Amino acid sequence: MSKKGKVLVAMSGGIDSTMTALLLHEQGYEVIGITMKTWDYATSGGDSRETGCCSLDSINDARQVAVDHGFHHFIIDIRDEFGDFVIDNFIEEYIAGRTPNPCVLCNTHIKWEAMLKRADSLDCEFIATGHYAKKVFDNGRYFVRRAKDLTKDQSYVLWGLSQECLKRSVFPLGDMLKSEVRELAMDRGYKELAGKPESYEICFVPDNDYRGFLKRQVPGLEEEVDGGCFVDQEGKLLGRHKGYPFFTVGQRRGLGIAFGEPMYVTEIKPESNTVVLGKQEDMIRNGMRVGDYNFLKYDSIEKPLEVVTKVRYRDRGTLSTMSMEGDEVMVEFMANVRGIAPGQSAVMYEGDDVIGGGIIKASF
Q1: Is the pLDDT of residue 2 over 70?
Q2: For a designed S-S bond to 265, which of 185, 251, 288, 345 qualifies (C-beta 3.0 to 4.6 A apart)?
Q3: pLDDT value at residue 3
Q4: Is position 203 annotated as part of the catalytic site?
Q5: What is the pTM of this model?
Q6: Number of C-beta neighbours around residue 299 at 10 A
Q7: 106, 124, 165, 229: the active-site residue
Q8: DSSP secondary structure of 206-224
Q9: Contact yes or no for 225/273 (Cβ under 8 A)
Q10: Active-site position among 53, 103, 165, 203
Q11: Are residues 56 and 179 in the same domain?
Q12: Are 260 and 331 part of one and the same domain?
């Protein structure tokens, strides 16, 4: 039995999770690798091969690392639980005119819970992932802090983790640069892995065609929503479209109609199959309502708090004020913010610390 304890490491076959497992192994932990089969792309009706964490190649890569270094590795099939929650939510949100963030939901409700369940059965004290983020314990609370490598920071997608999940989580890459991780892989003989391209696609939409995915998953949807209206900010008819679920707030390209100047989706009205278009300045919002909020650094806030709020993963963040209104968080921005999409995650920071996050319900 290792003095450091047993740790269950989520291994996707990529460089980050592989180096996470090897670093912990070298530090003296008893490592058990686990690869989660979340999705079988062939069942979606697509014509692209499986990619990322769901591919057979990636699973074999993860298993080979475990064999090379003499630690156990297991493959678990969580396709049913993944599909019931993540896929259903993904479809329901687009049908409701919102833009979902499936990776956040998967982390919060599927992967961490699945890992904790298996960790308990294997007597593992800890679980580890290759996320670029730091875990902090202060004032009786566990929370997430931005990674050293701000270009790879993934604290945004971890806002939904519970205190129990964070208590047992380990993020070995939080204090490392991506370049250092690649160098580690090279030094350990994993040259091909170090050069392996990263995937930024949704695992169950590896061809990045979410519209095609919706059409295949919801028979008759295309015919049901065809013939909707494009309108301007005053409600004037601008043209017809193929259906509101196939658009997202902030979208400019792929509208299917030319206007002579750049036009953006500013609002989606599913009840009337209407997509509202406007100019760039029409996307500006001063605030928003955020629901399903999960507090990390604090267990609650009693008065308005000045924070930096990110409304999407690649967002740099905007200085704002957050306050509670019932069970929702009200956010008022101190600078103009464009393209706020209901359904996406809003994450609030105090310096580098994640205060918490939730789902954008509406903007104003």
Answers
A1: no
A2: 251
A3: 73
A4: yes
A5: 0.93
A6: 11
A7: 106
A8: TTS-HHHHHHHHSTTHHHH
A9: yes
A10: 203
A11: yes
A12: no
Pairwise CA distance, residues 172 & 341, whole Å:
32
Q: Is 312 in the same domain as 358?
A: yes
- Give me the number of domains the chain comprises: 3
Q: What is the pLDDT of residue 47?
A: 52
Q: Sign of dihedral through CA atoms 268, 274, 280, 281? A: negative
| Pairwise CA distance, residues 27 & 21, whole Å | 10
Structural domain includes residue 200: no
Q: How many CB atoms lie within 10 A of CB 4?
A: 14
The H or E element spanning position 163 is helix 163-167
Mean pLDDT over the full length of the chain: 93
Nearest to 310 by CA among 356, 361, 264: 356
Going by pLDDT thresholds of 50, 70 and 90, the confidence category of residue 56 is confident
The tokens for 57 are 């190649």
- Is 165 assigned a catalytic role? no
Are both 268 and 302 inside the same structural domain? no
Mean pLDDT of 325-343: 97
Instruction: Give the pLDDT confidence of 223-257 residue by residue, as tens digits.
Output: 999 999 999 999 999 999 999 999 999 999 999 99
Residue with tokens 């291994």: 11
- Whether 213 and 204 have beta carbons less than 8 Å apart is answered as yes
On whether both 120 and 254 belong to a single domain, the answer is no
Report the sign of the C-alpha dihedral through residues 121, 125, 131, 136, in that order.
positive
Q: Show Cβ contacts of residue 43 under 8 Å, excluding neighbours closer than 6 positions.
A: none
How do beta strands 318-325 and 264-269 pair?
unpaired
